[in-house]
Specification:
The chain has helices at residues 7-17, 20-28, 32-56, 71-80, 87-105, 121-133, 137-157, 162-165, 171-185, 190-203, 220-239, 248-261. The chain is mainly α and 285 residues long. The longest helix is centred in the N-terminal third of the chain and has 25 residues, at 32-56. The radius of gyration is 18 Å and the shape is globular.
Length: 285
Amino acid sequence: MRDYTTIQELVNLANEKGGFFEAVLDNYAEDADARGAAVRRMTDSLNVMRDSIKEGLNPDARSMSGRVGGQAAKLLAAVRAGKTFGGNVLGAAGAYALAAAECNACMGRIVAAPTAGACGVLPAALFAAQEEKGYTDEQLVRALFTAAGFGKVIALRSGISGAEGGCQAECGSASAMAAAALCDLAGGTPEACADAAGFAGMNLLGLVCDPVEGLVEVPCVYRNIVGVANAVCAANLALSGVGLIMPADEVIDAMRRVGRQLPASLRETGEGGCAACRLNETGRK
């Protein structure tokens, strides 16, 4: 079993072992029983992700504050009616990301991927891709291992806590994980997957964490939509052959530096950014 602490080491392992699935699984589990248990656990996580989207699409769902809930159903209805831009993939991905995030805000069961505040990005990317391309659940599970491999490196080298590094550490990390997973699903090389993750992380560099009233609701749930859209675009760049001009590891290191440079008011304290805005109390439309 060989460990990895950088994206480059992970890419090298993926090239040696025939893909990220084998590289990540071999690092996590040494024998056949442990490998089987790991795959079953990841399959369970995929099922919870699917259920969280279904629960979040309930038009009658509301959070305790009443500020979120029911909006994902509205968005998906508009997408299905052809009223939105971006086609079915981006439209559905946005609605699914919002649904999972609203499920979390309404105290439903979600998978922190990598955090509860960013729980919608990865599942939305995978299930929207499945609808469009017909991927099997087994393929999605393998993609989750890819995402996990990238997430491990980001957690080690930068961090995934909004209180420590802003929302770039949560939705930014989730977006990078999702971009790599999408690129892998589509048959991208390990190097292309690394570029996809790097593009995604670079695009959300400096994103602040500013929960209104201290709740993981606004703007958190909406940033899940941005995160998944960014992941799709980043994967598309890498799959088209556009290369990142810097190593993905350098982007992750930049995320760490920028996160620590953010003032405390922009790191989950509820004091700056949108949290300091005057709220509109006119009610829900």
